[in-house]
């Protein structure tokens, strides 16, 4: 098992070979707020190089932790070449599979029913607005047929959340068929 150590946040450098090239500020602010409330749940992965530590995996967490004012960050240190660091970074990004909108909605629903949290409390804890939470909950009410079409057509979260604004499920289904891309 690899050891988790705490590193000075200012002594880390971004991986110049990283696959991810954009870090939208709004997204970093949300993650920063979450880190302030909950801390860093998973340590970042860094490579030890002659020039110092380079972030292999977890650059968003590192940047958000800096925004949150942290001075140290939990990390796992790997001894790896530039090639290995790039491969690890790519693998980590490929393996990460976010929750679907429906899984998010179901979890929000469980927080409400099992733990009696209000939407406002949930929003504050997970960094989502009241509207974003309500959209996810509304989409849970769709029939399995429509949900499956959305998933099969690999609609992105933005497209899926826009569907929550529509009232009629038939209209939503038509929109899914029109917008979505079928996975083959």
TrEMBL record:
<dbReference type="InterPro" id="IPR036086">
    <property type="entry name" value="ParB/Sulfiredoxin_sf"/>
</dbReference>
<keyword id="KW-0238">DNA-binding</keyword>
<protein>
    <recommendedName>
        <fullName>ParB-like N-terminal domain-containing protein</fullName>
    </recommendedName>
</protein>
<dbReference type="GO" id="GO:0005694">
    <property type="term" value="C:chromosome"/>
</dbReference>
<comment type="similarity">
    <text>Belongs to the ParB family.</text>
</comment>
<feature type="domain" description="ParB-like N-terminal">
    <location>
        <begin position="5"/>
        <end position="94"/>
    </location>
</feature>
<dbReference type="Pfam" id="PF17762">
    <property type="entry name" value="HTH_ParB"/>
</dbReference>
<keyword id="KW-0159">Chromosome partition</keyword>
<dbReference type="InterPro" id="IPR003115">
    <property type="entry name" value="ParB_N"/>
</dbReference>
<dbReference type="InterPro" id="IPR041468">
    <property type="entry name" value="HTH_ParB/Spo0J"/>
</dbReference>
<dbReference type="InterPro" id="IPR004437">
    <property type="entry name" value="ParB/RepB/Spo0J"/>
</dbReference>
<dbReference type="Pfam" id="PF02195">
    <property type="entry name" value="ParB_N"/>
</dbReference>
<dbReference type="GO" id="GO:0007059">
    <property type="term" value="P:chromosome segregation"/>
</dbReference>
<dbReference type="GO" id="GO:0003677">
    <property type="term" value="F:DNA binding"/>
</dbReference>
<dbReference type="InterPro" id="IPR050336">
    <property type="entry name" value="Chromosome_partition/occlusion"/>
</dbReference>
């Amino acid at each position: 098992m690899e050891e988790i150590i705490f590193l000075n946040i200012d002594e880390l450098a971004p991986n110049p070979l990283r696959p991810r090239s954009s870090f939208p500020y709004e997204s970093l602010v949300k993650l920063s707020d979450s880190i302030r409330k909950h801390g860093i749940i998973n340590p970042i992965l860094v490579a030890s190089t002659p020039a110092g530590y380079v972030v292999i995996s977890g650059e968003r967490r590192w940047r958000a932790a800096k925004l949150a004012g942290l001075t140290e960050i939990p990390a796992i240190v790997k001894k790896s070449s530039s090639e290995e660091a790039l491969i690890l970074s790519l693998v980590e990004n490929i393996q990460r599979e976010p929750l679907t909108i429906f899984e998010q909605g179901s979890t929000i629903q469980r927080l409400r029913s099992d733990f009696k949290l209000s939407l406002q409390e949930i929003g504050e804890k997970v960094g989502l607005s009241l509207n974003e939470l309500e959209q996810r909950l509304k989409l849970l009410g769709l029939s399995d047929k429509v949900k499956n079409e959305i998933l099969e057509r690999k609609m992105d979260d933005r497209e899926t959340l826009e569907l929550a604004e529509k009232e009629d499920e038939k209209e939503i289904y038509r929109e899914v068929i029109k917008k979505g891309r079928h996975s083959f």
